[in-house]
Amino acid sequence: MTEKQPSNVDLWLGRETPRIRKALESASRHFDANDNLTVNTIEAVYGQESSFGTMLGKRGSASAVGHFRLEPATARRYGLSVSKRNDQRFDIDYASSAAARYLKDLDSMFGKKTRLSEGLDTIPVKTVSERKKFVIGAYNGGEGRIATAQRLAERAGKDPQ
């Protein structure tokens, strides 16, 4: 009989520490029932972005690094310090809070028409479960890229939602 291989969830649960769990649960307080975002959402983003903290990158990097792979500008927008001496993207408490607030803001941006820049607005995604996909996509690729993709879909006669 073949032994069952552990799933990614099983591997994560084996690595999860009480400190990480507390940080993720604390960060999820930024979500409410209207968001359809939960501690599971932030946990999934954590897994995808840094393999649950096993692939963090270098401190002070000019690229996306840390527990939630935040770009320096995004990290600073959410109040994190980013320097070689003090890079809070590597602190699970600060990074998870910033990531949750960013997810919350993305949910708001794609929940209503939002001006991102001159000539670039989001198209509201009314279905909450569909909007969650846009939020996660925008977390990874940037809200501007997703809004641009919405416009391209609309111009091609496709559903931008």
Q: Any overview of this molecule?
A:
- This protein has 161 residues and is mainly alpha-helical.
- The protein has one domain (8-155): Lysozyme (Orthogonal Bundle).
- Helices cover 52% and strands 3% of the residues.
- It is built from 7 helices and 2 strands; from the N terminus they run αααααββαα.
- It has helices at residues 8-15, 18-27, 39-50, 72-77, 92-111, 128-141, 143-155; strands spanning 115-117, 120-121.
- It has a two-stranded antiparallel sheet.
- A hairpin with a 2-residue loop joins strand 1 (115-117) and strand 2.
- Helix 6 (128-141) crosses helix 7.
- The mean pLDDT is 91.
Give structural attributes:
161 residues, mainly alpha, Lysozyme, two-stranded antiparallel ribbon, 7 helices, 2 strands, globular
Secondary structure blueprint with pairings:
Blueprint (H helix, E strand, L loop, with lengths): L7 H8 L2 H10 L11 H12 L21 H6 L14 H20 L3 E3 L2 E2 L6 H14 L1 H13 L6
Antiparallel strand pairs: 1-2
Low-confidence spans: none
Helix fraction, binned, reads 40-55%
Portion in beta strands: under 5%
Mean pLDDT: 91
> Number of helical segments?
7
How is the biggest beta sheet arranged? Answer: 2 strands, antiparallel
Task: Encode the helix/strand succession as letters.
Answer: HHHHHEEHH
> In total, how many beta strands?
2
CATH fold name: Lysozyme
The end-to-end span amounts to 47 Å
What is the name of the CATH architecture?
Orthogonal Bundle
Rg of Cα set:
17 Å
The geometry reads as: globular
Give the domain tally: 1
Which structural class should the secondary elements be placed in?
Answer: mainly alpha
